Amino acid sequence: MMRMDFNRTVLVTGGSGFIGSHLVCSLVHRHPDWRIINLDVLDYCCSRRSLQSVEDRTNYTFIRGDVCNSRLLNHIFSTQNVDVVFHLAAKTHVESSFESPSSFQRVNIEGTRVLLSAAHQAPHRLHRFIYVSTDEVYGAGLGQGFDERSPLRPNNPYSATKAAAEIQVTAYWDRYKFPVIITRSNNIYGPRQFTEKVIPRFLSLLQSNRKCTIQGTLPKSRHFLFVDDAVAAFLLLLEKGIVGEIYNVGTSCEIPIMHLAQELVKMVKNVADSEVDDWLEFVPDRPRVDLRYPISCEKLQQLGWKAQVTWTEGLRHTVKWYHDNPDFWSDTSEEQRPITAELCCSPDRTDALYD
Ligand SMILES: NC(=O)c1ccc[n+]([C@@H]2O[C@H](COP(=O)([O-])OP(=O)(O)OC[C@H]3O[C@@H](n4cnc5c(N)ncnc54)[C@H](O)[C@@H]3O)[C@@H](O)[C@H]2O)c1
After folding, report:
1. Mean pLDDT value across residues 106-129
2. Tell me, which fold does domain 198-221+257-290+310-345 have in CATH?
3. Cα of 132 to ligand 1 centre, how many Å?
């Protein structure tokens, strides 16, 4: 298909990452008449294998590049007639954000500014700019949960940069009526998530006969959303979301981290109930960890979205995938792996793994 034959051009930033790769695959397969451009720097958390199923598709283009590179971004927007942007490129590991906040500020805040500026100045008028943010911008919560009007009280450098990026996105709506939509999602899980995040982390520990590490004594929990349901929400918002609005994306499936570890032990180790806790190890807490992030998703549900994948199905599918793909990240090249990535992946690392 010739370039001019495509009905829509969609730019996904961070399309080689965990959520981005599921979004790109879904877009490429479902919409052969749309051209999907993936702009990604290929950070340590990516494997080229994530996008193998679309690599040869004529409606897929990969650009290896940095979202902070204004020359590159201006070139893309002045030549590619981009209609839609899904902005996912980000530094995402909370613990690393304490160790190197400036790299988070550069990519998450400056990168968003560069992208907004290039998209806004493009000769071809953009139809939608969808910024994928996180429930962590609300900070910790109790009770019924935050709705989209709740104040932002981020508690770590990662969520602070996501909140700062959101404010820039909102400013483009307020100032220019630039057609933005912001999403704030729960913890998303599923196949191809890098091993620094809690579910793959516990699985990789168990697969190497190590114990799951539980931080501190305070009961922490997270709401988990299966990645296909998150992608479905983003695609629905592209069609039905109202510009200038923010949408929480999540489930009522709140799982205490301790239960998550116990459930994974049962599934992977197949041990008697009395032996499950032998596979847990208690380690010191990091300071100021948010205990839970409850959100209300009524606004998104009113557009017709509902999570389709149950926790049991999603977890079973995810555990099977990690079992079948133990060497998935072995193609990640050395130059893609900064020191922090090595630390995150090391079985000796026991801290900060819930986000
Ligand atoms: N995973 C979750 O639970 C979750 C929940 C809510 C929101 N989010 C948001 O969704 C987005 C994607 O998250 P993920 O879990 O897939 O993360 P990820 O770390 O797997 O992917 C991030 C992607 O961004 C790319 N990237 C990093 N720096 C870049 C740069 N300078 N230029 C271009 N690309 C760059 C990386 O190479 C990677 O492909 C992020 O914006 C994150 O804040 C994630």
Report:
1. 98
2. UDP-galactose 4-epimerase; domain 1 (3.90.25)
3. 9
- The preferred substitution site among 39, 88, 168, 193 for testing ligand 1, maximizing ligand atoms within 8 Å of CB, is 88
Confidence of residue 336 (pLDDT cuts 50, 70, 90): low
Residue 196 annotated as catalytic: no
Whether pTM exceeds 0.85: yes
Residue nearest to atom 19 of ligand 1 (CA): 92
CATH number belonging to the domain at 3-189+223-249, selected among 3.40.50.300, 3.40.430.10, 3.40.50.720, 3.40.50.1110: 3.40.50.720
Q: Is the CB of 51 under 6 A from ligand 1?
A: no
Active-site residue, 136 included: yes
Minimum-distance ligand 1 atom for the alpha carbon of 136: 6
CA–CA separation, 16 vs 37, rounded Å?
11
135 is catalytic: yes
The yes-or-no verdict on residue 322 having pLDDT over 60 is yes
13 CA to centre of ligand 1 in angstroms: 9
Question: For the chain, what are the domain ranges?
Answer: 3-189+223-249, 198-221+257-290+310-345
pLDDT digits (tens, 9 = 90+) for 268-317: 999 999 999 999 999 887 777 788 888 999 999 999 999 999 999 999 99
Which of 18, 130, 137, 290 most suits a substitution to test ligand 1, by most atoms within 8 Å of the C-beta? Answer: 18
Q: Say which of 158, 189, 293, 322 is annotated catalytic.
A: 158
